[in-house]
């Protein structure tokens, strides 16, 4: 069962975007129209920056497991 789930996730286009994902912060306020993310320069540097006008995908998925 877990192998089937893993195979499905590996084929999922959205999950493929997360393969090289880096943590840049945490959600500290979330509602239906907006989200506030707390980040710091160290995390952004490790992620090689966040381009202006980019779209940030936030997830709580652990891609290692």
Provide an overview of this structure.
- With 65 residues, the chain is of the alpha+beta class.
- The chain has three helices and two strands, in the order ααββα.
- The chain has helices spanning 2-11, 13-17, 41-46; strands at residues 25-30, 35-39.
- The chain has a two-stranded antiparallel ribbon with strand order 1-2.
- The longest helix has 10 residues, at 2-11.
- The chain starts with a helix and ends in a 19-residue tail after the last helix.
Please give the radius of gyration in angstroms: 14 Å
As residue ranges, the low-confidence spans are none
Strand order of the largest sheet: 1-2
Q: Number of helical runs? A: 3
Shape: globular
Structural class: alpha+beta
Query: Ends: how far apart?
Result: 15 Å
Tell me how many strands there are. 2
Average pLDDT: 76
Which percent range fits the helix content?
A: 25-40%
Q: Characterize the biggest β-sheet.
A: 2 strands, antiparallel
* Assembly category: single chain
